[in-house]
Design a protein that fits this description.
There is one protein chain. The longest helix is centred in the middle third of the chain and has 206 residues. The chain contains 30 helices and 24 strands. α3 runs antiparallel to α4, α13 packs antiparallel against α14 and α13 runs antiparallel to α26. The strands form eight sheets. A five-stranded mixed beta sheet has the order 13-15-16-17-18, sandwiched between helices. It has a four-stranded antiparallel beta sheet with strand order 4-5-6-7. A three-stranded antiparallel beta sheet has the order 2-1-3.
Length: 1381
């Protein structure tokens, strides 16, 4: 049996581990759950032991010693009888135990017993310590409630086993000592004595005997190789030890122990095996084998192995195989003496099981039991699901309303979100439009600035070019002057210098004028810049003030926002805490409500129970009074019945004397009738035997039977055996059978091909040989005319082929076999015919005594009975049937005589029957009254006990009711307080939610204001920065202009100095200039032209300067406008970025996704604002909304629908199970009624046949309840009155049960039946009747009878005697009585 490891939780919550044996995993789970409420894990047990170290290894046998077990069982029984609890007793015994292993096991087992486990289950985890019988006996004691008696029986068993072991050990002590001494002496002789003698013999010389030389050689070998021999012996011992631990080794040891007995006593084998072999030629067992063997092998550990035809299987497979064959569990295939007592002493309800097994409804009852178990489980599940469904149904409607509110809120919120999102998108689009305009304007301004800057650069370049041109003209003039000075004389040089000086003065004056004008312009520009700078300083101060104010506003709004967010976070956290507290409170309230509801239901049940108990107590009191009244009436009736009995007995004695004479005559005729009936029975038995021999082809070869019983395709071509294919007149049977001889067993085949396949089949199966006569190959020779004449000789009946009948298509076969065989009346006629044919024709006599073969040889002599062939048996069958007919007619004559005598005796018998019936009725009534009085006394005691129990139950129920009432009183205020606290919490939660909503609105407003303040701050900061940059630029321009103005003043002073010096030089050179005047006049025209050019260039330079100033003013204006546009762009970009960030933060969506979502509304901003206000008002009117209500409603709805489906499925399953149970009940009732009627008929017939008369009947104790009624047995032996089974003698009781046994076997025959000394209580006459009864049933059932009665053994076909020549070893001696006849 497999083992399973498991982990489970005990009733105290502790984890328990262990190992148990079970048929399969499902069985293991069921057994574990019976002991532990929670199963964690179950897995097949690994037999490999884990070695945790040398110190943890156990040395020696792990099992507890037998003596220790005996003491433990004795102490356990004593402690249990004293009333001590099992766990406490185990701990006490563990403390007193001297075996440490047992002490540890008992302590652990006590803990498991305290946690709710049984003793057997707790000890089963240590199956390697205890024998399997020890654990199973304890389990049986626990289940039957007789644990102390189980320990008593175990104590006696183990005490006896210990004493027996000690006796065997003491008896073997001396022989073992002698063997040990002999081994030591042998070793000393071989090692010391023989070597010394060998040296002496060697010194003496001469030839030694062979045996002596062998001893000396063995001694030398032993002396040299004794260590090797010891090693080899040790290896052999170790190998056998290891092999003996395997399964094959155990089987080998068991077989060796059975075949090679030890001296004195056998050792325990550790394994036992038994095999049952069934002849399955009729395929009654559902296997395609002619022979079926069932084997069970039992090991000492308690494990078992099963096999069918040497193939391993399960016990369930064997039970299924034997089901409905008469060999299953509860069948009547094995009956012992205890079975007789069990049937007679059992109650009618217990006796019913035999009839159910015979009727074949036991399996239906198992199916009904399984269906009832499933029905109970289904009803329990239905109740549980109905409770859960009712609880869930109460949650559906509130959640539906909350879900509808949430859906409405979601729609409004979605619409509000779309409205706000649309406004937000419009705002962003407006910003985008402004940005687009600003970008366009900025581009235009930038272009203007670039144009102005380009124009300024171009103008400056033009002014620079004019100045350079002017400088070039001056350089050219100077070069001309230099040329004049070089060509003229010094005079000319002086005049030239004078001219130069004059020109220089004039140029300096002009430069001074130019510088003066330029200085004025610079002063004007500096004044304008200073004015502009002062204006910008004012604006800058104003912007800084605005920036500071914006910064303060941002800081204040940021603080307000943080404060609001903190308040909202705290409020939300408080709301979550309140929701959690509310949920916990709700769960506590639900638990309290459930507990109160459960207590109220229990109170209702207790009230109903108390009312029922009150009613039962009243009924019990009324029943007690009725019983007392009935007891008095029955006592009076008993006295009247006893008086009537005396009168009936006196009349019966008178009538019996008159009927005795007629009975004697009737007995004589009965003896003759019985003798005739016995002869008929013997003839019928012989006839049945012969018919069975014919059917089984008795006397035919094994090969012939194999071919006839085969199922091969060619079997259809087998026409039959030659002997069964002919029809022979009775007078020719012996002659034809003799003529055929061995050919009578020849097989006639349809074709030679089929014959070849049959021969191959016999070779393949090694099933013997057979002769085949194929129709397509058999040839015969036609008789000649002289051979035909032989049939007309005197004393010759004719050819054998002409004297038999057969199918015309088989003519070649029988002409081949019998066409040349003559049948003669006697031997003389046979010899004459043989001589006439020159001994070429076989001749057979009618008596079959002589056969004249071809060639002249003779065969003859007496024929043994057992040599009768197939045709002779057929002839004998016909003769026996004729004799049986004659005997039946003779029996009919005796029957008529019996009827005449019985008619004469009938008058007396009728009167006697009437008297007996009256007497029997009176006696029965007397016995019934006695039994009824005893039963009434017992019922009175039971009624009193029941009344006392009912009163105790009522008191207990009342106490429980008051305790539960007090508990309800304590729980209801708690529930009321929790409900008030829940309502207060909900109100606080609503207030907090409203405050949080207001804080959210204020936070949104602060965020908008903060956004505007941040935009203003960023815009002011950008403008301040731009203005600071511009002021720095203006400051730099003014510094540059002041530097230019200072440089102009320095240059003017320098020019004045030059002019003064030049005038002085001019006056000095005036005299020298006159001389050179003539020369200068030649170049006056060129000089005038040069002066005109300089004037023209100077004028152009003045115009260019003015245009440059104008362009610079325009550039300044353009840059100012561009800077203002840039500041506006910065502000718009900040608004745009903030809007996109707010869109992503609040709506979790991008601008493109918002545009593509399709949620935007096609309305104006004013309409959107109105819609937003309306939606906010509608949302506010909804009040608090549970966002998870939809999911909760869907989950609860789904669960409710699931529970509804489960409820419907379970209801349907319950209806189906009830229908199945009803169908099973109907089928069981029908089958039981049919079987009961048949068995009743068979029982009555078998009883009459076994007792030689009398009456017997089976009756239902409650005919209205066919499926639950018990079965009573009513019998009346011949010559006796109807009486109870308990008043019958031992033999009558045994015969009654035997009659019932054979009635059951008649209805459901069993292939075999084992009877264990059930004839022990019968006398010799009944034993003979029982033996004949067995013989009559032996044709359909094989009986194996264990008996000591001579009459039973005489009727057996085979005797097996069992003797025990050696202790513990049985021998079998078998005798076939049929072969000894």
């Amino acid at each position: 049996m497999p083992k399973f490891s498991y982990r489970a939780l005990g009733r105290d919550g502790k984890e328990v581990r262990g190992v148990l044996q079970a048929e399969n995993k499902a069985d293991a789970i069921a057994r574990i759950r019976h002991n532990y409420p929670v199963l964690l894990n179950v897995s097949p047990h690994d037999e490999k032991k884990k070695i945790s170290g040398i110190l943890s290894m156990e040395i020696g046998n792990k099992r507890i010693k037998t003596k220790t077990l005996a003491i433990l069982c004795s102490q356990f029984a004593i402690t249990l009888r004293s009333g001590m609890p099992v766990g406490r007793a185990m701990r006490m015994l563990a403390g007193q135990c001297g075996d440490k292993r047992l002490q540890k096991v008992m302590e652990k087992a006590a803990e498991q017993v305290d946690s709710g486990s049984t003793v057997a289950s707790a000890l089963e985890q240590y199956s390697e310590r205890f024998p399997l019988t020890f654990i199973e006996t304890i389990r049986a004691g626990e289940q039957s409630g007789t644990l102390d008696r189980s320990f008593d029986r175990l104590h006696k068993y183990y005490d006896k086993a210990y004493k027996t072991t000690e006796k065997i050990r003491s008896a073997l002590m001396y022989p073992m000592f002698v063997v040990a001494v002999a081994v030591v002496v042998l070793i000393i002789v071989m090692a010391k004595v023989i070597p010394t003698l060998a040296n002496v013999f060697a010194d003496l010389g001469g030839n030694l005997p062979l045996l002596t030389r062998m001893m000396i050689g063995f001694s030398d070998f032993f002396e040299k190789w004794w260590l090797v021999m010891l090693g080899v012996l040790f290896l052999i011992w170790a190998g056998l030890k290891l092999f003996g631990r395997t399964k094959e080794g155990k089987i080998w040891k068991a077989k060796a122990a059975l075949t090679v007995p030890l001296v004195g006593v056998r050792r325990p084998l550790g394994v036992a095996e038994v095999t049952l072999v069934f002849d399955n030629s009729d395929h009654r067992l559902s296997l395609d084998f002619d022979e079926v063997s069932i084997t069970r092998r039992v090991f000492r550990s308690g494990d078992s192995e099963y096999s069918i035809n040497k193939k391993n299987c399960r016990l369930k497979d064997i039970l299924d195989l034997l089901a409905d064959t008469g060999l299953g569990r509860g069948s009547m295939s094995i009956i012992g003496q205890n079975k007789i007592d069990e049937i007679l002493n059992s109650r009618p309800e217990e006796r019913r099981a035999l009839f159910e097994e015979a009727a074949g409804i036991a399996k239906f009852r198992m199916r009904k039991k399984e269906a009832m178990r499933r029905l109970d489980d289904t009803a329990a599940n239905l109740t549980r699901i109905n409770d859960i469904k009712a609880e869930v149904e109460g949650q559906v409607e509130p959640l539906r309303l909350a879900a509808e509110q949430t859906r409405k809120f979601n729609l409004l919120d979605k619409e509000l979100r779309a409205c706000k999102l649309t406004q937000f998108v419009h705002k962003i689009e407006n910003i985008e439009n402004i940005r687009q305009k600003l970008n366009t304007q900025d581009a235009e301004l930038e272009n203007k600035v670039l144009e102005r800057a380009t124009a300024v650069s171009t103008q400056e370049a033009e002014c620079s070019a004019l100045q350079m041109e002017l400088d070039k003209l001056s350089e050219a003039y100077n070069r001309i002057q230099d040329d004049i000075k070089e060509k003229e004389t010094a005079l000319e040089k002086l005049r030239g210098q004078e001219a130069v000086l004059a020109e220089r003065v004039r140029q300096s004056e002009k430069s001074g004028l130019r510088l003066e004008e330029q200085g004025k312009k610079l002063q004007e520009q500096i004044a304008a810049l200073d004015t502009q700078l002062k204006t910008m300083v004012v604006d800058y101060d104003r912007l800084e003030a605005q920036q500071a104010a914006a910064q303060l506003l941002v800081s204040r709004l940021t603080g307000e926002q943080a404060e609001k967010e903190t308040r909202i976070s705290e409020a939300e956290a408080a709301m979550e805490d309140m929701k959690t507290a509310a949920f916990d409170n709700m769960r506590t309230m639900v638990n309290l409500r459930n507990e109160i509801r459960g207590l109220e239901q229990e109170q209702e049940q207790r009230m109903r129970k108390r009312d029922a108990l009150k009613k039962s107590i009243a009924e019990a009191e009324t029943a007690g009074e009725e019983l007392q009244s009935r007891y008095r009436n029955m006592n009076d009736e008993q006295s009247n019945v006893e008086n009537s009995l005396e009168l009936i007995k006196r009349d019966g004695r008178e009538v019996s004397a008159k009927a005795a004479e007629e009975t004697e005559a009737l007995n004589k005729v009965l003896s003759q009738h019985k003798d005739c009936q016995n002869r008929i029975t013997a003839l019928e038995s012989r006839l049945n035997l012969l018919q069975n021999m014919q059917k089984s082809y008795e006397g035919f070869g094994y090969g012939i039977k194999t071919v006839l019983q085969s199922q091969e395709p060619w079997r259809s071509d087998v026409i039959g055996v030659a002997a069964e294919l002919i029809e022979v007149q009775p007078e020719y049977v012996v002659a034809i059978e003799t003529a055929l001889g061995g050919a009578a067993q020849n097989l006639v085949m349809g074709s030679s091909e089929a014959a070849k396949k049959a021969i191959a089949y016999l070779k393949q199966r090694q099933a013997g040989r057979a002769t085949f006569l194929p129709l397509d190959t058999i040839k015969y020779y036609e008789r000649r005319s002289e051979e035909e004449a032989l049939a007309k000789l005197p004393g010759i009946r004719g050819f054998a082929a002409d004297l038999i009948g057969y199918d015309i298509k088989l003519a070649p076969i029988f002409k081949f076999l019998l066409g040349r065989v003559l049948v003669a009346d006697n031997m003389d006629a046979a010899l004459a015919a043989a001589k006439k044919s020159s001994f070429r024709i076989r001749v057979v006599t009618l008596a079959g005594d002589v056969v004249i073969n071809a060639g002249g040889s003779l065969t003859g002599g007496s024929r043994q009975q057992k040599e009768a062939g197939f045709l002779s048996r057929g002839k004998e069958i016909d003769e026996q049937e004729q004799k049986a007919g004659v005997l039946r007619r003779e029996l009919l004559g005796y029957q008529e005589l019996l009827e005449e005598h019985e008619g004469t005796l009938k008058v007396y018998n009728n009167k006697l029957v009437e008297l007996r019936q009256d007497l029997q009725q009176k006696e029965i009534r007397k016995a019934e009254l006695g039994v009824a009085l005893e039963r009434l006394s017992a019922e009175q005691r039971q009624a009193a006990e029941r009344l006392e129990l009912l009163l105790d139950d009522r008191n207990q129920v009342s106490q429980e009711y008051m305790a539960a009432r007090q508990q309800l009183t304590d729980l209801r205020p708690q529930l009321t307080a929790l409900e008030a606290e829940d309502a207060q919490g909900k109100q606080l939660l609503d207030d907090l939610q409203k405050q949080t909503a207001a804080d959210h609105s204020a936070l949104a407003s602060i965020r908008n204001r903060l956004q505007d303040a941040r935009v203003e701050l960023e815009s002011t900061a950008a403008r301040t920065t731009m203005m600071a940059e511009r002021m720095q630029q203006l400051d730099a321009d003014m510094g540059r202009m002041q530097q230019e103005l200072a440089a102009n003043e320095d240059e003017q002073k320098h020019l004045l100095d030059v002019i003064t010096a030049s005038k002085t030089s001019t006056e000095q050179l005036a005299a020298s200039s006159t001389a050179l005047l003539a020369e200068l006049q030649t170049v006056v025209g060129g000089k005038d032209e040069f002066g005109a050019k300089r004037i023209a260039i100077t004028e152009k330079q003045a115009v260019a300067g003015e245009r440059l100033d104008s362009l610079k003013k325009e550039l300044t204006v353009a840059e100012t406008r561009r800077n203002q546009a840039a500041m506006e762009m910065v502000r718009q970009n900040s608004d745009y970025d903030h809007a996109l960030e707010q869109l992503a933060t609040e709506y979790r969506i991008t601008l493109d996704e918002a545009r593509a979502s399709g949620d935007l509304l096609d309305e104006s901003d004013a309409a959107l604002r109105r819609r937003e206000l309306r939606l906010e008002r509608e949302i506010e009117t909804l009040g608090p909304v549970n966002p998870a209500a939809i999911e909760q409603y869907e989950a609860v709805s789904e669960r409710y629908e699931f529970l509804q489906r489960q409820y419907s499925d379970l209801s349907e399953a319950k209806a189906n199970l009830e229908a199945v149970i009803s169908e099973i009940n109907s089928g069981m009732a029908k089958r039981f009624k049919e079987a009961f009627g048949k068995i009743n008929e068979y029982f009555s017939d078998c009883y009459v046949r076994l007792f030689g008369g009398g009456t017997a009947a089976l009756k239902l104790t409650d005919p209205n309840d066919v499926l639950g009624s018990g079965i009573d047995i009513e019998v009346q032996p011949p010559g006796k009155k109807l009486q109870s089974l308990f008043l019958l003698s031992g033999g009558e009781r045994a015969l009654t049960v035997i009659a019932l046994l054979f009635a059951l076997l008649s209805y459901q025959p069993s292939p075999f039946c084992i009877l264990d000394e059930i004839d022990a209580a019968l006398d010799e006459a009944n034993v003979d009747r029982f033996a004949k009864f067995l013989a009559a049933y032996a044709e359909s059932t094989q009986f194996i009878v264990i008996t000591h009665r001579k009459g039973t053994m005489e009727a057996a076909h085979v005797l097996h005697g069992v003797t025990m020549e050696e202790s513990g070893v049985s021998k079998l001696l078998s005798v076939k009585l049929s072969e000894k006849e």
